[in-house]
Specification:
alpha+beta, GMP Synthetase, Chain A, domain 3, 12% strand
């Protein structure tokens, strides 16, 4: 900022000096020649900072604009990943509920947990937690095997009393 002020001040001084000299000089060919010299001096004064211009400033501004653009891309990407995760959870819940209903088991609650990996999502990154009626406890192994086979993921099953299910 200090460089800009100094540059502006030198242009003003050059313009002031040139204007004073134009007023003082009499009308003649010397004045015309002097006007050309003053004009050239003014142009050189205006352009002179460009020889010392810091090109890294342009690169820095370009990098900042690219970073802003990339941050918007990441925000969009995060939103898309979150939407995908929510849709996947709902689909998995629905599929789990359908499989349990096919076995004649009423579900109280199904929760799906997805551990978001850095790479592509795999079945090992998904955990399904089911709350089932206590009356289905004797079929625990059968339920776990079927759901793990059908869904290819880890299943956690909890049981609540049939009376609690009827109240909920």
């Amino acid at each position: 900022m200090q460089d800009f002020r100094q540059w502006a001040f030198s242009i003003c001084c050059a313009a002031l000096a040139g204007g004073m000299l134009r007023i003082i000089l009499p009308e003649s060919s010397v004045k015309k020649t002097f006007c050309v010299i003053i004009s050239t001096f003014m142009v050189l004064s205006i352009v002179s900072p460009l020889k010392n211009f810091d090109k890294s400033f342009i690169k820095t501004e370009l990098e900042i604009s690219q970073q802003k653009e990339n941050s918007h891309t990441y925000e969009f990407s995060d939103t898309a990943e979150e939407m995908f995760k929510n849709i996947a959870c709902e689909k998995i819940k629905h599929l789990t509920k359908t499989k349990l209903e096919e076995m004649g088991i009423k579900t109280a609650n199904i929760s799906v947990y997805i551990d978001q990996p850095e790479t592509q999502l795999q079945a090992k990154d998904i955990v399904i937690e089911c709350i089932l009626p206590e009356s289905s406890n004797p079929r625990h192994d059968e339920i776990c095997k079927l759901l793990e086979y059908e869904l290819g993921t880890t299943i956690r099953i909890g049981y609540i009393t049939d009376q609690t299910m009827a109240e909920g």
